[in-house]
Amino acid sequence: MSNPAVLTIFDGDLLRSIDLNLPELQHGVTGAQLLEISESKVSQSLSGLSLPPHLKNAAISQVSDGDEVNFRRTEFNQQQASEKLGVFFSAVADALKDTPIVVSILDGTMLKMFLEDEDDFAMLAENLFTDLDEEDKGKLCKSEIRKALVHMGVEMGVPPLSEFPMLDDIVKKHDADGDEELGQAQFAELLQPVLQDIADVLHEKPITIVQNVEIFTGSRIHKILGDEKKLKCLVEKTILEDSNGKDSQGWVKTLIIKNGKELGLPPLSSDNEQVALLYETIFSQLNNKEKETADASTNLKEEFMDALKDILKKFEELLETTPVYSATNL
């Protein structure tokens, strides 16, 4: 019965192929108007997704050169506006490359799949009824239809009420409120038209739901590797905090585990097999690496820095080939 929602990943690639001309502009626009146009066009290109604050702020900062107040007051002609629009799109695309967004696009397709297959729908309705009938009475109140929709959730194609206010109207339209008790067959009969209406509305106007999932690629690590000052600070901090005579590889493991997020790495967790395997693969390479005799002239910090860069490059290579997913709180 379970058909998990199809996930879509926005990593910026789509935005780089959009036509950024603004033929609809007959006259100049202010920076404030241009920001509204830019945000709207990006949202349309991302299936109606509202830009998260960190993406929006990054794009505004870049397109305004850090002076948003004056930018909003400035007048731009059509060519200038198109160029600024390109900067806005590029900024969002770059940010998405570092931190892709995972979404579910609810367009009614999944609900129609359930509704068009009698066996699938019968099994869905039966499972929902059984799950909600906690006291095994064989009866449920009409109002339990709302709980059934929540139970189905985004994974089965039903958006949350907070994102889909029409859900309340649809439930009321079919008189799916109140204390009247229904048997399993009656429950299924009431559920069917409710789901059909939800599917029809979503078909006309799909809803994009951001998933609590973070994707880790090698992009952020690549940037960190170019930040010599940041790496040096982390090395010095680790040596000061942990001076137990470890070799450079031992210190690197300590630093990686303590500062993984800061380095663009997924949080290490035994609950996430994909992430645990990633760390195990990298650390096993360190363990199997033959210890080289350090040159007497080699500075401890330099040796530590080289070992850190080496392991980060290994993480970058693996994550570029096989990105990993990690649950996050948005």
Automatic annotation (TrEMBL):
It comes from the Eukaryota. This is EF-hand domain pair.
